[in-house]
Amino acid sequence: xxxxxxxxxxxxxxxxxxxxxxxxxxxxxxxxxxxxxxxxxxxxxxxxxxxxxxxxxxxxxxxxxxxxxxxxxxxxxxxxxxxxxxxxxxxxxxxxxxxxxxxxxxxxxxxxxxxxxxxxxxxxxxxxxxxxxxxxxxxxxxxxxxxxxxxxxxxxxxxxxxxxxxxxxxxxxxxxxxxxxxxxxxxxxxxxxxxxxxxxxxxxxxxxxxxxxxxxxxxxxxxxxxxxxxxxxxxxxxxxxxxxxxxxxxxxxxxxxxxxxxxxxxxxxxxxxxxxxxxxxxxxxxxxxxxxxxxxxxxx
Length: 300
Fold this sequence. Notes:
Shape: elongated
Helix content: under 10%
Structural class: mainly beta
Number of domains: 2
Protein name: Lipoprotein
Number of strands: 23
Low-confidence stretches: 1-26
Mean pLDDT: 88
Order of helices and strands: EEEEEEEEEEEEEEEEEEEEEHEE
Largest sheet: 6 strands, antiparallel
Strand content: over 45%
């Protein structure tokens, strides 16, 4: 299974190295706050992004989920520029193996002297396949003027990212919660004390395929920890931990294909037919977390 910048102008963020940094930081800049309600790695896989200052390209890059350098929400800091300079961002989201963007978005504004501004830009599912004219962009399914008056923009605050909505954590998703399930390629319900089959792993050991249904936690960058305990054997399995990406599924998100080894440090014959207590903890990059536990029985 698979920090946010602390400086406004001297930043390296997902491959963008900003020139012109000095010990004296300036407060005249624009930081793009990029969000999406789509699932990165599933709804789209790559993102082309181009930033221009006064019509000159200063940043241009293709980032991808597979390369590990595409995570949302994220920041794209623009180079500090003189008062009134035009900032223009162009985005194109692509599905895996495709060259025609499924969603495009542009946003422009101007620099205001002595101010650090946040330019919020969202890639939205409602704009998938919406074609706008040369001087328009899609927002919430409608073609609008891409220019945002700098006087309407909020001051940049690095904590914006902590409450930014994404594909899995929205204002309506509620408190963080987990539902335990099973499945390698899809989520399936799992009853308490259900007998589960195990299979040999490619590198030794035997495992069961588990899954989670998730609400209220970020789609990307969350850390999963799985613990197992055989009560009748008084044996605790070594915990499994991994950084994960959730998949959007209706009004919730899912994580399946969790391979949990059930005979780590113990003979597989000793655990056949045994009840196993499994506990999951999922913590997202903001520190929000949820825990769920269930009991399964290893197949004889």
